[in-house]
Write a structure and sequence with these properties.
Rossmann fold; seven-stranded parallel sheet
């Protein structure tokens, strides 16, 4: 696997109810910057999107935002991003994030985060890419999402191999370690909560 030089991070346009979500997202931003990994993200300056971009920039990192024209007002495009692209639709936004990223990271978020995550997992299942997909289980946030995916397998709507399309890591340090050495570190059990996550 080639070194990861850019990562698309999917995260909320809100900060969430627990302060740990913002803390972990800022920690990820600082870590990506220190690792020299470019952030590819949804381009907003609000919620966790704004937090990760601010943390990256404060640590000297490169931030590549991509936001649809119609979302400029709702998500408020980040004025300090290293580069900002405006797209005509959500579809083109996701396509550009896909093109620019060497890996995909899911942090806490809402419907848009779920949509982006499921799409890149589906694309990997269809053989459109073989890029790492890492879901960070911040304070147990990812467990309901994982339960839905496992239920799809248990109910016969997805093959068990679907759970091998992504990895779950328990926290930001583990996530950064996987990004630093994607082909040498032992993978976490695909589709499962990692040891140390409290499950």
């Amino acid at each position: 696997m080639t070194p990861i030089r850019s990562a698309a991070v999917f995260c909320g346009s809100r900060v969430g109810a627990d302060p740990i979500y913002a803390e972990a997202t800022a920690e990820l931003g600082r870590g990506l910057a220190l690792a020299g990994i470019t952030l590819v993200y949804g381009g907003g300056r609000i919620g966790l999107m704004g937090i990760i971009a601010d943390a990256m920039l404060a640590a000297g990192g490169q931030v590549h935002g991509i936001i649809p024209d119609f979302l400029q007002r709702r998500e408020v495009a980040h004025g300090g991003a290293t580069r900002m692209e405006f797209t005509p639709s959500m579809h083109t936004r996701k396509a550009r994030m896909f093109e620019l990223a060497d890996a995909f990271v899911t942090m806490p978020g809402g419907l848009g985060t779920f949509d982006e995550t499921i799409e890149v997992v589906t694309w990997r299942q269809l053989g459109l890419h073989d890029k790492p997909i890492l879901i960070c289980d911040v304070a147990g946030w990812a467990r309901p999402l994982l339960a839905v995916l496992r239920t799809a397998v248990e109910d016969g709507f997805a093959d068990a191999s679907a759970l091998e399309l992504f990895e779950v890591v328990p926290d930001v340090p583990a996530l950064l370690a996987r990004l630093a050495a994607p082909d040498t570190l032992p993978a976490e059990m695909p589709g499962a909560i990692s040891p140390g996550s409290g499950v």
